[in-house]
Amino acid sequence: MIDADELLEGFDWLHLSGITPALSESCREFILRLMKTAKEKGLTVSFDGNFRSKLWGWDEARDYCTQCLPYVDVLFGIEPYHLYKNDDDPAAGDYKDGLSMHPSYEDQDEVFQRFIEKYPNIKCIARHVRYAHSGSENSLMAYMWYDGHTFESKKFTFNILDRVGGGDAFASGLIYAMMNNYKPMDMINFAVASSVIKHTIHGDGNIVDDVESIRNLMNMNYDIKR
Fold this sequence. Notes:
Elements: H1 4-8, E1 13-17, H2 25-41, E2 44-48, H3 58-68, E3 74-76, H4 105-118, E4 124-132, E5 137-146, E6 149-152, E7 156-159, H5 166-179, H6 184-198, H7 211-218
Parallel strand pairs: 1-2, 2-3, 3-4
Antiparallel strand pairs: 4-5, 5-6, 5-7
């Protein structure tokens, strides 16, 4: 019953998570309606698949989230989506099949290119990669396709206080950087740095609003300012 056109009036960016459509059929219908309306109104649409196995099945999530791709400008993550090698024969496999959890630059670039070939509306794809050295020490880096090129971030190693919300912090960091016209390498490094800082904060949100602190981490500038 919600008027999507009225709801989006006055905004220029719509960010959605795959958790919402997992909640119910009505949520799925609403999310697609929001996306379509946002595109008609000229908003930038970003989407983070955010699969949660306790909410819905993998195949169901892939089927639905793939329907969203034609309306997405900025895509976070490469799952859960179908990226069939042959749309008429799903048995031929998915381009993401066999991709390592820690892909090489070349392998990640190949997958990004396949997404763009099939969905030329996508202007940016970004995904972070986690290296778990122990339960308390991780490293994070990320890959991003933007403006015809794939970029690879720095790798940050850190101790974990609370990792819940790290993906959302990555997404919000990239959105902030894009809205403020950062250069591509700064965009992806700022996003990773935002996620890293979230890992040092209790709770599921990055409450840091000191952009300069995030940029210092992004630039690996640890000097004390007196």
